[in-house]
Design a protein that fits this description.
The chain is of the alpha+beta class. It has one domain (about 20-145): Immunoglobulin-like (Sandwich), CATH 2.60.40. It is about 20% helix and about 40% strand. It has helices spanning about 5-15, 25-30, 130-140; strands at about 40-50, 60-65, 65-70, 75-80, 85-90, 95-105, 110-115, 120-130, 145. Strands 8-7-1-4-9 form a five-stranded mixed beta sheet, with helices on one face. The chain has a four-stranded antiparallel beta sheet with strand order 3-2-5-6, with no helix packed on it. Strand 5 (about 85-90) and strand 6 (about 95-105) form a beta hairpin. It is globular and about 45 Å long.
């Protein structure tokens, strides 16, 4: 393959990686922004701002080891979880950042996803948001990402 062909192929792959991901319906987005967990469950919000390194990359979000969605810039996802221990993780280019929590029914938990420059590209960073008011503010600034479930 010629150098020109390799450059065109690489450019095409980069453009595909930058494509917008589908968002959830506005009704689901508005309902999630009420911050009311289902009876006997907790809500876990993971929000990703649109600034900083890796802004065009989409991170894989996993909950208890199961991939639930891809987080693009300026999106968030909410997980309705049973009480008990859970793991939240985000990954990109094989690099993972994770956190654990002990969910209590009736509570909301907030995480922020950012990125830092890495050797290959952006590396995900998952941080706990300790102030519920800040977590709610972050979620309200973003759009609900679409789940992998139908």
């Amino acid at each position: 393959m010629s150098v020109r062909g390799i450059v065109l192929l690489w450019g095409s792959l980069l453009l595909v990686g930058c494509a917008d991901l589908p968002a959830a319906s506005s009704e689901k987005d508005q309902a999630a922004k009420l911050f009311i967990p289902a009876v006997g469950r907790a809500n876990i919000y993971v929000a990703r701002s649109g600034n900083g390194p890796g802004g065009s990359d989409s991170f894989d979000l996993k909950f208890d080891g199961v991939k639930v969605c891809r987080l693009a810039a300026s999106t968030y996802f909410v997980i309705s979880a049973e009480p008990g221990p859970h793991e939240v993780s985000v990954s990109l280019y094989g690099i993972t950042s994770s956190a654990t929590l002990l969910a209590v029914a009736g509570n909301n938990y907030f995480f922020e996803v950012t990125a830092r420059p890495g050797f290959i590209g952006a590396e995900p960073v998952l941080k706990v948001v300790m102030l519920p008011s800040l977590g709610k503010f972050m979620v309200r600034q973003n759009q609900l990402a679409k789940s992998f479930e139908p």
